[in-house]
Design a protein that fits this description.
The structure holds two protein chains of two kinds.
Chain A lengths: L3 E2 L4 E5 L4 E3 L2 E2 L6 E8 L6 E7 L7 E2 L2 E6 L4 E6 L8 E9 L6 E3 L3 E6 L1
Parallel strand pairs in A: 2-12
Antiparallel strand pairs in A: 1-4, 3-9, 5-6, 5-10, 7-8, 8-9, 10-11, 10-12
Chain B lengths: L3 E3 L3 E4 L5 E7 L5 E8 L3 E10 L2 E4 L7 E6 L2 E6 L8 E8 L7 E2 L3 E5 L1
Parallel strand pairs in B: 2-11
Antiparallel strand pairs in B: 1-3, 3-8, 4-5, 4-9, 5-6, 7-8, 9-10, 9-11
Classes of the chains: A mainly beta, B mainly beta.
Amino acid sequence: AQKITQTQPGMFVQEKEAVTLDCTYDTSDQSYGLFWYKQPSSGEMIFLIYQGSYDEQNATEGRYSLNFQKARKSANLVISASQLGDSAMYFCAMREGWRGNMLTFGGGTRLMVKP
Amino acid sequence: DVKVTQSSRYLVKRTGEKVFLECVQDMDHENMFWYRQDPGLGLRLIYFSYDVKMKEKGDIPEGYSVSREKKERFSLILESASTNQTSMYLCASSLGVTDTQYFGPGTRLTVL
């Protein structure tokens, strides 16, 4: 079974609008962490946001927020007020307690922001 | 800022060649990682190291080996490159076990 599932291979969003990128995960661990990374065409992976399984509040970092629904095992990334520079691949990743610092990544979503 | 650098952005090698991919980080991080990235599959962990001369297999270690002789440097070795190892290779580092991983720019390897 897939540990991290990103069901949207590609998405379009109009500049200045908000967009939600979906991520569902599968783990039996109680202790885990969820990450979102951005990969522009240059190739470098840029860390965006982190949510721990015990965090009660949804994580936020500037225009990025993580909609964490533990019972549904989802950790969707919300980007508010999209900008042209947000066009990139976005990856959801999970760290499970028993795997230490090893990350499992989803297949990614390509976001394209239209002017 | 954390800086992770990789020796080459693009590399072309022939089947059967021995290939070295080098990664250097400048933030005194304990942990270093090698991933490969393929379309639709995301990133998959090949090997990681949590200390000098220490290494652990990741999810897809077959056909690869690693070396960490100094804390700042982590090398990925393809002993005999094959065409199915054509991929993007990404190196990452983190300070501690639960800390965020920071990535280098990647090396796109083509094996002919």
